[in-house]
Amino acid sequence: MPSYFLQQLQRQRKRTLAVILPALFFLFFLSTPLNAGHIPAPVNRLLFKVSKLFALDEYDEAIDLIKKFRLENSRNEYVNHPELLFALGNCCLAGKDYGCAVKNYQKAVSARPDHAPSWLNMANALYNLEQYDEAARSFTKAFKLQEKKNPELLYYSGICLLLANKNAQSLKVFAGLFADFPKNIKPQWKEGMVRALIADNKNLRALPLLRELVSLYSGEKKKQWSEVLLYQYLELKMNEKARSLALTLARQYPGEEKWWKAATHAALEQGMMEEAMASLMIVSFIHPLDARDAKLLADLNLQAEIPRKALIVYEHLLEDNPSAGLLKRVVYACRSLGQQEKALDILEQYKQIVLKDQELLVSRADLLYTLSRYGPALKAYLLAAGFSRKDHQELKGRAWLMAGYCAWQIDDLQAASRAFARAARFPGQKKSAVKAEGYIKKILKIT
């Protein structure tokens, strides 16, 4: 079975499994209400002004105001108050200066390690910086510090670990999430678990969840997860399930060639050549086949004993990209149709390829012999017999044997005897060659 069908599906599956977090903007401007008793009055007044600027999306002005305040009050400890650093980090985050945000959140948690909102927003900034491993740790830390636990943060942690290629760790996080919060399980958590299982090569364990997702969704999402499930069936060699699902999807979306290609793959894996050919034919109606698919369709026609259709395709392919493999198929198709002359003509057109391939040389000689052109056939067999490649000994032996028969047909008994003697050196031809050589020797004695 051509592996490129699976490669095409794999590329599509990767797009479906691409991990994209929702917009992570857990932006608390403050972790506690303004005028809270533990915030120093100057800081409280400043934060009130900053909150107004923040509400107007004037983040740069808010940052400048905080920086000015910290500079003017540099001798006071409250310039490093965690709420002030948190607010500065939030302004940077809102303005998409993620490096600045992380730096200020880190200062906030250094001043107050249990400052959960800083850990949470820092995870957001780290995610945007594609520092996924650190983002996962920050999400987990924020979760642990929360009084009212939000399991969604563990989901984000698991996804970030996936993005960091920490697949086993991600799977562990998702397993814990499912175990600790069974009543809170959401479809997106199941998606994350599937991604983690597949990434950690636990494909078989992903199948029940994949089937759940397919049943749960409708529309485009149902189609996307059906595609992932189909790929898993194919990859796990669950060919009957793959075939059934591929045909179901092909009937639901008849204009999309990927389902018919998957059905072709699954049918071929089960040896159902006629069904594979039918599916690939439908692909050709949807979109012109590329060279590989066209060749496959021609091969299937040939196997189904429909050489005429196969030959048409092979000839077109030869024009664009001639090769020894295609020429061999052309010869087979022509001979199946009784068109030996056409086969010879085509081989003559691509003589340079034929001269480099012993099998094609023998095929050309066979065609000449079939047409009773024994003299040219003898030359062709001798050319094939003289081929130097050591891995074609069986063909060499057959070429010598057939050269002997050709020489016999044109009454060159000495040449026939020599050819049979050479053929007798090859195990596969020894019996026939010795017998033929015996007849020749008897004839030579009589004459």
Which properties best describe this structure?
447 residues; Serine Threonine Protein Phosphatase 5, Tetratricopeptide repeat; mainly alpha
Question: Regions with pLDDT < 50 over 5+ consecutive residues?
Answer: none
CATH architecture of the domain at 202-286: Alpha Horseshoe
Helix content: over 70%
Radius of gyration from the alpha-carbon trace, in angstroms:
37 Å
Strand tally is 0
- Count of individual helical segments: 25
Distance from first to last alpha carbon: 58 Å
Shape estimate: elongated
- Under CATH, the topology of the domain at 202-286 can be stated as Serine Threonine Protein Phosphatase 5, Tetratricopeptide repeat
Q: If you average the pLDDT, what whole number results?
A: 88
